[in-house]
Design a protein that fits this description.
Structural class: alpha/beta
Largest sheet: 7 strands, parallel
Helix content: 25-40%
Number of helices: 16
Number of strands: 14
Distance between the termini: 37 Å
CATH superfamily of the largest domain: P-loop containing nucleotide triphosphate hydrolases
Bound molecules: adenosine monophosphate
Order of helices and strands: HHEHEHEHEHEHHEHEEHEHEHEHEHEHEH
CATH class of the largest domain: Alpha Beta
Number of domains: 2
Length: 453
């Protein structure tokens, strides 16, 4: 299968060969012809499958085929993403793929001043990539006109809903033209509320699926090292010292934990930075670009900040803490073993996390290799039976006992349905970067910190 056979234009084929892409990934092969035909599309694909190019390439082609006669530049395509990082990344990809086309685009997200965004919008752009909250701010200020949108992309729709963006999405969708609009929805999972959104706002969507939900890339090997909690830092240093130049993404459950870990790594002579929701957008962008440019070797991230980060061929991801929700393990590990390269996922698991490990083993059908690291063996073996412990703050309240949340103001994350309405009891991390159980529980239900993404 070649990109040519999918019907892509020469200008795009040229950009792809400059990127070094030789053949389409399965989601690209399935989605590109359908999008070129103008169909609405629901695609089940997670980060790492090449999903961005699957919508970006045909989107660019369709827009470039319809030239604007009167010289004005109405916004014709809108891509919505859950996080700022993903928005910036999708925008970068659009620019790379569209480098031989005369197409202009801009990216709009919160946490930075409005000035540059207003200038770009005034000048006129063909494509906007945006997070929902800031786009609504522009809609309220009437600095953006969405009345000429031909193509809408909802990227990582499940994550947008997890983060409580449903009211914002509906508000944006209601401001778009209804006739002749093409809508593309990409999501790792298809919970009932995503299907409901599709029913309401899509026209007879075609469906494509390339990876079963909750699966991890086949080329990733998973190692679990049981260790006493107080020796985790030493074990991490030991693993990092095995190849001190190897770029490593380390996951921490909390923002505070991520900062502490970075300080400890720096004291030990390792160049590291943290990326989480309490960092300014500039600090987050700098940490990510320093990591990509090899100026730092270790990036310590919380789940929400890391969502959608695209780092080419990251060889290893370390879970310093296990995620509270097993599905987040899949999202974390999606950063390695991408687009055909090998990857390693290493988890350091202390006694209090044995219950979380049990959940992950069940989800992955026990694909994990559990082995002690010589010199760091735990004082007592890990329990993996039904009563295996979880971190204190992980205790979940039984469903139905939590008070309902009221919706938050428009454009910012608000209410989402309870986990019991979602398939397999799927409860994703809705921005959960907090140390305390109460906050964590709130975040799962679309809590206050989510718009910090
Ligand atoms: P995505 O799922 O869109 O985040 O893409 C994951 C990674 O795969 C990114 O680093 C892309 O640059 C890369 N990629 C996308 N399409 C291809 C392709 N056809 N061949 C090789 N790499 C690709």
């Amino acid at each position: 299968m070649s990109f040519e056979s999918l019907g892509l234009a020469p200008a795009l084929l040229r950009a792809l060969s400059e990127q070094g892409y030789t053949e389409p990934t399965p989601i690209q092969a399935a989605a590109i012809p359908l999008v070129l035909q103008g169909a609405d599309l629901m695609a089940a694909a997670q980060t790492g499958t090449g999903k961005t190019a699957a919508f970006a390439l045909p989107l660019l082609q369709r827009l470039s085929e319809k030239t604007q006669g009167d010289g004005r530049r109405p916004v014709r395509a809108l891509v919505l993403t859950p996080t700022r990082e993903l928005a910036a990344q999708v925008h970068d990809n659009l620019r790379e793929y569209g480098r031989h086309l005369k197409m202009s685009s801009t990216v709009i997200f919160g946490g930075v001043g409005m000035g540059n965004q207003l200038t770009a919008l005034r000048r006129g752009v063909d494509i906007i990539v945006a997070t929902p909250g800031r786009l609504i701010d522009h809609m309220q200020q009437r600095s953006v006109d969405l009345s000429k949108i031909d193509v809408l992309v909802l990227d990582e729709a499940d994550r947008m809903l997890d983060m409580g963006f449903l009211p914002a999405l509906k508000r944006i969708l209601n401001a778009l033209p209804k006739q002749n609009r093409q809508t593309l929805l990409f999501s790792a999972t298809f919970a009932p509320e995503i299907k409901a959104l599709a029913r309401e706002f899509m026209r007879d969507p075609r469906e494509v699926s390339v990876t079963p939900a909750n699966s991890v890339a086949a080329l990733v090997t998973h190692h679990v090292h049981p260790v006493d909690a107080e020796r985790k830092r030493d074990l991490l240093l030991h693993i990092l010292s095995i190849d001190s130049r190897r770029q490593t993404l380390v996951f921490s459950r909390t923002k505070h934990g991520a900062d502490k870990l970075v300080r400890h790594l720096e004291v030990s002579g390792i160049r590291a930075a943290a990326i989480h929701g309490n960092k300014s957008q500039n600090a987050r962008t700098k940490a990510l670009s320093d990591f990509k440019a090899n100026k730092i070797t270790v990036l310590v991230a919380t789940d929400i900040a890391a969502r959608g980060i695209d780092i080419d061929q990251l060889p290893v991801v370390i879970n310093y803490d296990l995620p509270m929700v097993a599905e987040d393990y899949v999202h974390r590990i999606g950063r390695t073993g991408r687009a055909g390269s090998d990857g390693q996922a290493i988890s350091l698991v202390s006694h209090d996390e044995a219950g979380l490990l049990r959940d992950i083993r069940r989800l992955l059908k026990d694909e994990l290799n559990v082995s002690d690291m010589a010199g760091y063996e735990p004082s007592t073996p890990l329990r993996t039976d039904a009563a295996a412990p979880r971190p204190k703050q992980a205790q979940r309240q039984p469903q139905g006992q939590r008070p309902p949340r009221s919706g938050s103001r428009d454009g910012k994350p608000g209410q989402r349905p309870p986990a019991s309405h979602r398939p397999h009891g799927h409860v994703n991390n809705g921005g959960g970067e907090h140390a305390t159980g109460n906050k964590r529980r709130r975040n799962r239900r679309g809590g206050a910190a989510s718009n910090k993404a």
